[in-house]
Design a protein that fits this description.
Length: 340
């Protein structure tokens, strides 16, 4: 009887130990938690207010059930100064035993960049090429699908997101200058009009009128087929110290009616650099398609045209990708148009 009792106790103890061992293995599996990794911070684009960034991150889900991101909160800082706070409830689903990627976006104003650069460079923002910024926050995961965590009374799990990134000290300043109509000489203009079908006398009269500087009638170029060029300079400056290259992709002269002419770089190059920040532009206007606009330019009267520039910006001394989008648009006052 005693032997039977001892055997029963031993068997019970063996089962208990087995259960404890099993429970420890199960618990070890449960303490695996989701992780968040900051993959990269990249420049998404620039405008005339600041630099927009994308912060790319990944969430790894070790559980056999799906999770979702319930919220994100993060501060963008320079040293101890908060630049902006990000809050989002637009989450993503993270499938069971998988990793999902997502991103959040924010903008760093130029004025903040220049202020901090000046504060560490004796008041001269152009003396600094870049500054170290940081992201400090957290992501909340909805873990209501995980029974073991629910049993512990938890429906959310909060994970930190922390990373550093480099901000170029940059504030673009673009302008257009020396907008001029490039008029042919009297003899060249007379020959061009003559070759276009006008008699010599009429061609000479029209050429003299066009070059006189007097106000022209709106229909003076009706039926005339010739090209007249406009030229101007595009000037790019940086109020900070970062080196830059600006690749010109597309540019045009527009009116309220739409595009009036494509614009190209006069010498055929397509890149403006911080060491050579001015480039001459040229547009060829045909009198058949643009006669009324040419008359407005010569009369310095009418609706102002708009110059639109589409470029790609590169910071050669940073890790950021090339050809970051930067667009520029400005109105050309007809009162400033010159004859050249």
């Amino acid at each position: 009887m005693k032997k039977s009792l001892f055997a029963g106790l031993a068997a019970g103890l063996s089962v208990a130990l087995a259960m404890i061992t099993f429970s420890c293995v199960s618990l070890d599996g449960l303490v695996q938690t989701p992780t968040v990794s900051m993959d990269s911070v990249s420049i998404a684009g620039l405008d005339l207010e600041g630099i927009s960034f994308n912060a790319n991150y990944s969430v790894k889900n070790p559980y056999g059930v799906s999770l979702s991101i319930a919220g994100l909160s993060a501060d963008v800082n320079y040293e101890d100064t908060k630049i902006t706070t990000l809050n989002s409830t637009d989450g993503i689903k993270v499938n069971a035993s998988s990793t999902s990627s997502n991103k959040f976006s924010f903008k760093v104003p130029y004025e903040s960049i220049l202020k901090f650069a000046a504060s560490v460079a004796g008041g001269n923002a152009s003396a600094k090429k870049s500054l170290p910024f940081g992201i400090d926050g957290n992501i909340s995961l909805d873990v209501s699908n995980v029974p073991a965590l629910n049993a512990l009374g938890s429906n959310t799990l909060t994970l930190p997101i922390v990373t550093d990134f480099e901000v170029p000290v940059f504030k673009p300043k673009l302008s257009v200058s020396n907008f001029s109509v490039k008029m042919p000489t009297l003899n060249d203009l007379k020959n061009q009009l003559t070759n276009g079908g006008l008699g010599v006398t009429k061609a000479l009269q029209l050429a003299t009128t066009l070059l006189s500087g007097n106000k022209l009638s709106a229909n003076i170029l009706d039926g005339i087929d010739m090209d007249i060029d406009v030229v101007f300079d595009v000037n790019v400056a940086n109020e900070g110290g970062a080196d830059w290259n600006l690749n010109i992709k597309d540019c045009a002269l527009n009116t309220v009616a739409g595009k009036i002419a494509n614009v190209s770089v006069a010498d055929g190059t397509s890149t403006i650099t911080s060491s050579n920040p001015k480039v001459s532009m040229k547009a060829s206007l045909n009198t058949i398609q643009s006669g009324a606009f040419i008359v407005q330019l010569l009369n310095k009267a009418g609706s102002n045209p708009t110059f639109e520039l589409d470029t790609g910006l590169t910071f050669p001394e940073t890790k950021y990708a090339k050809n970051i989008p930067l667009k520029y648009s400005t109105e050309i006052p007809l009162s400033s148009v010159k004859r050249n």
